[in-house]
């Protein structure tokens, strides 16, 4: 029988063994060594089992970044359960859908997220054990109760066992629970480390929210090196720069918007980045002006771009530091998304799934060890997405003669604004509920700060009057604020339609993207 790959917990425990006295994390001025961190996770796992959690059960987390969140990334799979990080930026109705979909037995909540979600949390009180990550609450289980349990052995889940479910927005308006396995997520994070990212002993910045898979991947790479996670509760430019300088951060993941905001922070001093060796960036392309500014301010830093998605366990391609400098930069290759990692294969295919030659644009297909198990409770969508052994990304792209991938459009009409994935169909669905709206299309348009912003094009019903402010307020009642339009364009005649009656978004996008070096970004 073939050897089964180690599970998530056993891999991290093995990495930490030589460094048990070294700091595992830093958070708000506090720190703890690896020995204490592993013991804490083992006791929380014991507490979960005492609550009745069994292998394969789902355990959800609704929390800001913290050292407790790091502990839960270890403790939940340690107990044999499946981690479900909930998006703290979603509104209660959106997270209620995720809870109804994955039916967790336990939900951890940080203090700052109780009040905004109070009604939802009360509704689930008789169905889910709510664990407070802060103060005592009537009817809730305190984290201290779990920590008082005896430490337990790792449940030993591994291979294709389900490790986590990450919810993403849905192109049809329904969220998708992406199922990632122990083996798949470990394969992806290990491949990134083999590329040189987040090496053993680094001090890694963890500031993007830990409900994002990219942040989870950084945390995991850090733990696989027995390294130190420097955790920020949330991103703000000045505070993050302070954290980088004061804690001697050596490696970081930052989305381009964060980099620009750091550069624009009052009193920005590049000397505060002296210890930083590598910045990995992704979620959206970096504007050339921003890349030029940060490389001029900190020429010693290596920049590495990642392209991927939740469905491939984070990353499919990497564009190394060499491609950001010298002859590659002069040839424009820094505008690419990189080459496939060794665990991934990429082809560009036409609508029938046939491979296309270099230079031709088609859909990006990915296969390899990191590809998801499927979508939770959505077998038809899983079958549609995982066809012929390939993950159909819905992204449009091309490969050049050097094998570098260029992402040129988003077939699924996803907008990436400030590193957040926003699905146009979801925003359109919210706007369409307004009685004054006859036609609506939502597109991404260039934005100097956010990369893209959500832009709505509206045709009002005959005789109806509605303002931009009213439509945005209407949206905010139904979806998270960051998904709502930042600009609205009102038309007096029908939006452009195809022969089949579909709105031609390409025609709506075209005027906004003229003169841009990319169609995405």
From TrEMBL:
Limits of the AMP-binding enzyme C-terminal domain: 426-502
InterPro entries: AMP-bd_C, AMP-bd_C_sf, AMP-binding_CS, AMP-dep_synth/lig_dom, ANL_N_sf, ATP-dep_AMP-bd_enzyme
Protein name listed in UniProt: 3-methylmercaptopropionyl-CoA ligase
Family from the record: Belongs to the ATP-dependent AMP-binding enzyme family.
Gene Ontology MF annotations: acid-thiol ligase activity
Source organism: Sphingomonas tagetis
Broad enzyme group: ligase
Record keywords, A-Z: Ligase
The reaction(s) this protein catalyses: 3-(methylsulfanyl)propanoate + ATP + CoA = 3-(methylsulfanyl)propanoyl-CoA + AMP + diphosphate
EC number: 6.2.1.44
Domain AMP-dependent synthetase/ligase: residue ranges: 14-376
């Amino acid at each position: 029988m073939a050897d089964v790959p180690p599970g998530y917990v056993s891999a991290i425990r093995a990495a930490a063994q030589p460094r048990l006295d070294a700091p595992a994390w830093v958070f708000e001025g506090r720190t703890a060594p690896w020995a204490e961190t592993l013991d804490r996770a083992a006791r929380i796992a014991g507490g979960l089992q005492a609550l009745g959690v069994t292998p394969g059960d789902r355990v959800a987390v609704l929390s800001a970044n913290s050292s407790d969140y790091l502990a839960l990334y270890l403790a939940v799979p340690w107990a044999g359960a499946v981690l479900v990080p909930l998006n703290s930026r979603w509104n209660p109705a959106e997270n209620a859908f995720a809870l109804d979909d994955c039916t967790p037995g336990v939900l951890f909540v940080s203090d700052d997220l109780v009040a905004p979600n109070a009604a939802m949390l009360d509704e689930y009180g008789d169905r889910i054990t709510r664990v407070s990550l802060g103060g005592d609450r009537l009817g809730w289980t305190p984290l201290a109760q779990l920590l008082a349990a005896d430490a337990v052995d790792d449940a030993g889940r591994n291979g294709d066992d389900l490790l986590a479910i990450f919810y993403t927005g849905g192109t049809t308006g329904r969220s998708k629970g992406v199922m990632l396995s122990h083996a798949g997520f470990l394969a992806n994070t290990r491949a990134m480390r083999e590329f040189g990212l987040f090496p053993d002993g680094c001090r890694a910045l963890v500031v993007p929210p830990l409900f994002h898979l990219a942040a989870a991947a950084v945390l995991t790479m850090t733990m696989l090196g027995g390294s130190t996670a420097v955790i920020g509760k949330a991103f703000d430019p000045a505070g993050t720069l302070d954290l980088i300088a004061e804690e001697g951060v050596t490696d970081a993941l930052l989305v381009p918007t964060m980099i620009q905001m750091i550069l624009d922070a009052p009193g920005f001093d590049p000397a505060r980045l002296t210890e930083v060796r590598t910045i990995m960036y992704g979620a959206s392309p970096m504007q050339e002006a921003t890349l030029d500014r940060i490389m001029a301010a900190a020429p010693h830093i290596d920049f590495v771009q990642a392209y991927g998605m939740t469905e491939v366990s984070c990353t499919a391609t990497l564009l190394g530091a060499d491609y950001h400098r010298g002859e590659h930069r002069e040839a424009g290759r820094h505008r690419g998304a990189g080459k496939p990692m060794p665990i991934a294969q990429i082809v560009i295919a036409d609508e029938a799934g046939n491979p296309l030659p270099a230079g031709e644009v088609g859909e990006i297909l990915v296969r390899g060890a990191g590809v998801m198990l499927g979508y939770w409770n959505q077998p038809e969508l899983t079958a549609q997405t995982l066809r012929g052994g390939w993950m159909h990304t819905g992204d449009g792209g091309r490969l050049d003669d050097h094998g570098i991938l260029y992402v040129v459009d988003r077939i699924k009409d996803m907008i990436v604004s400030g590193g957040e994935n926003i699905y146009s169909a979801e925003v359109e669905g919210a706007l369409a509920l307004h009685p004054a709206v006859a036609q609506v299309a939502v597109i991404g348009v260039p934005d100097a700060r956010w990369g893209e912003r959500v832009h709505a094009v509206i045709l009002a019903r005959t005789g109806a009057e509605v303002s931009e402010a009213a439509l945005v307020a209407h949206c905010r009642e139904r979806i998270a604020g960051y998904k709502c339009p930042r600009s609205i364009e009102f038309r007096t005649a029908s939006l452009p339609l195809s022969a089949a009656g579909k709105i031609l978004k390409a025609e709506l996008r075209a005027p906004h993207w003229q003169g841009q070096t990319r169609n995405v970004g």
